[in-house]
Design goal:
It contains three helices and no strands. The chain is an all-alpha fold and about 100 residues long. The protein has a domain of about 45 residues. This is Putative bromodomain-containing protein. It holds the Pfam family Bromodomain.
Length: about 100
């Protein structure tokens, strides 16, 4: 995801500032945490990835390019994560319909 069309905005090497509000997590930190085995489950990893994109949508208006990119990348991530989640025990799955992304 970091190397795709919209990848420039989602990792720590990015020097652009999207908002004046800090976003404490980026895909660079997620990658670092993953490489250091900091996630106890795939759901913890997915939660951080979602947080990156949710923050971008929360702190940028719907008319902003960053909001649109975050929405597309979140949808793409969810599509890629679905088969992984399906392999988890039932009690560890996130109900897809319980996650609602509505940001103004």
């Amino acid at each position: 995801m970091k190397t795709g069309q919209y990848g420039w905005g989602w990792h720590s090497e990015n020097t652009s500032t999207f908002t004046d509000k800090p976003i404490l997590l980026d895909l660079g930190l997620v990658k670092l945490n993953l490489s250091k085995n900091m996630y106890s489950s795939p759901l913890d990893f997915a939660s951080d990835v979602r947080l990156v994109f949710e923050n971008a949508m929360l702190y940028n208006p719907k008319t902003d390019e960053v909001h649109g990119m975050a929405h597309q990348l979140l949808s793409y991530f969810e599509m890629l994560f679905r088969p992984i989640q399906a392999k988890l025990p039932t009690d560890q799955r996130v109900n897809e319909f319980s996650v609602v992304y509505e940001f103004d």
